[in-house]
Design a protein that fits this description.
By secondary structure, the protein is an all-alpha fold. The protein has a single domain, classed as HflD-like (YcfC-like). Helices cover 72% and strands 0% of the residues. The chain has eleven helices and no strands. The chain has helices at residues 3-28, 33-42, 51-55, 62-72, 81-98, 101-117, 126-140, 153-157, 159-181, 186-191, 193-205.
Length: 207
């Protein structure tokens, strides 16, 4: 398997990770903090030297690779239809974004603003999450029908959880942009499942 394939799989794992974290927050009101930070941080890495740099260490994508295996491995008979819907919706949303020059330009400007903010506040500051969530709400979400998130109503009505979910959906779209830039196509998910699963398992073994 060549490096380009591996980089594609890294980006797709990023999409899967965002979807899984969204589901966790919606259902349980919480998600693994390190995975959330890695996914959200990836939004602000706009000039990486390589794909892994977007997410930091390989370990940061453990959740994403685990999800990739569980959703695509033919040996797993208990695939999560809700996760599949989230992943498909994120990929579809990215395709709509890629066709809108105006939205892409606005997205770039808003992300640059958040990058500048980081010179004055820590990444954990609630204002950063708020701003990332608003980028999703204002620019990305209107491009397609809203992604319907299922879960515990109490968790979903919590304002902080709503912002975290929107920010993570933005992170998923960012990973989907990267996946497409690396030559990723939907048909690869359908017809190259075995290669994707083996690559993901290899990444998990390397952690």
């Amino acid at each position: 398997m060549n490096t380009k394939d591996q980089e594609q799989h890294l980006a797709l794992a990023g999409v899967c990770q965002s979807a899984t974290l969204v589901q966790a927050i919606a259902r349980k009101g919480e998600a693994q903090a390190s995975a959330v930070e890695a996914s959200l941080s990836s939004i602000l890495v706009t000039s990486p030297e390589n794909t892994q740099q977007v997410f930091g260490s390989l370990q940061n994508l453990q959740t994403g690779f685990t999800t990739l295996v569980s959703q695509l491995d033919s040996d797993n008979k208990l695939k999560d239809a809700e996760l599949t819907r989230y992943i498909a919706s994120i990929l579809s949303l990215e395709r709509k974004l890629s066709r809108s020059r105006k939205a892409l330009d606005e997205l770039g400007m808003r992300v640059s603003h958040v990058q500048r903010q980081l010179a004055h506040v820590d990444f954990e500051n609630t204002q950063i999450i708020t701003n990332l969530a608003s980028i999703y709400t204002d620019i990305v979400s209107p491009l397609a029908p809203k992604i319907q998130i299922s879960g515990n109503p109490q968790n979903l009505s919590n304002e902080i959880n709503q912002k975290r979910i929107r920010a993570l959906l933005l992170a998923g779209v960012r990973a989907a942009v990267l996946w497409r830039q690396l030559g990723g196509k939907r048909r690869q998910i359908l017809f190259n499942r075995k290669a994707l699963v083996e690559s993901a398992k290899s990444a998990l073994r390397a952690m």
